[in-house]
Structure formats: C-alpha cells, structure tokens
C-alpha cells in the first residue's frame, strides 16, 4: 500500500512540475506576427493563368477554382454564388463550363473570386 501511495505522490509531483514548466513557457513566449512587419497584404487583384482544377464538394456545395500562372505560382479561389463567369466575348458562362487547361483571368477580393473571364 505504501508503494502505491509513494508512486502516486511521485507522479503527482512530476505532473505538477511539467505543468508549471509548460505554463512558464507559454507565458514567456512573445507573440508571433502572422505577416512580416510592414508587409502589404494583397486583398484585391487580378491573376492570369491556366485552370488546374475546378471542383465542387458535393456535401457542402463549396466550389473552388485552382489557377496556375506561367511562373508556376498556384492560387486557389473560393467560388461563390456572386462570382461572374464570362468568355472572351463576354457571353455569360457557368462554373460547370470551366475546363481544365483553359486560360483565365480571375479578378478577386479577400473573399474569393469576383469575376472569371475565359481568354482565348
């Protein structure tokens, strides 16, 4: 019985020491910046490239458009109900008409794709 009591006491003291060390580390950590100091975070712009994928998640209805430019940079744009899609002659198109490999110009905001124009 004494062995069990001593073992429990040692375990309790060890866990308290670990908790105190973790708490001290958390309190001593400096806050980390999510963006470099002085950086300009791009929230609006235009991205031109080829469609890598246009997918819709069936259960949630969420749509995403992945576009890669000539330098290999990829961006994923959330595609919402207000996103306008048009071909190069400005005829209205739909998300389902976007095909892999098509060259597009995506106008976007911080919320996602605002307009997608298919370029010929």
How would you characterize the overall build of this protein?
The structure is a single chain. The chain has 120 residues and is of the alpha+beta class. It contains one helix and five strands. Helices cover 22% and strands 38% of the residues. The protein has one helix at residues 2-28, and strands spanning 45-56, 63-68, 74-86, 103-109, 112-119. It has two domains: 1-32; 45-119, OB fold (Dihydrolipoamide Acetyltransferase, E2P) (Beta Barrel), CATH 2.40.50. A five-stranded mixed barrel has the order 1-2-3-5-4. Mean pLDDT is 74; it is low at 20-29.
- Average pLDDT reading: 74
Largest sheet: 5 strands, mixed, barrel
Which fold name is given in CATH as the topology of the largest domain?
A: OB fold (Dihydrolipoamide Acetyltransferase, E2P)
Element string (H = helix, E = strand): HEEEEE
The first-level CATH class of the largest domain is given as Mainly Beta
> What's the Cα radius of gyration?
26 Å
Shape: elongated
Classification by helices and strands: alpha+beta
How many alpha or pi helices? Answer: 1
* CATH architecture verdict of the largest domain: Beta Barrel
Helix content: 10-25%
Multimeric status of the protein: single chain
Low-confidence stretches: 20-29
Please, how many domains? 2
């Amino acid at each position: 019985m004494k062995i069990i009591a001593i073992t429990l006491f040692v375990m309790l003291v060890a866990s308290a020491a670990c908790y105190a060390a973790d708490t001290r580390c958390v309190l001593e950590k400096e806050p980390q910046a999510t963006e470099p100091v002085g950086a300009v975070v791009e929230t609006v712009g235009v991205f031109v490239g080829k469609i890598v994928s246009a997918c819709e998640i069936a259960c949630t209805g969420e749509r995403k458009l992945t576009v890669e430019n000539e330098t290999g940079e990829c961006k994923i744009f959330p595609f919402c109900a207000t996103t306008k899609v048009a071909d190069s002659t400005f005829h209205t198109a739909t998300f389902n008409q976007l095909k892999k490999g098509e060259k597009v110009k995506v106008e976007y905001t911080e919320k996602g794709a605002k307009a997608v124009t298919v370029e010929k």
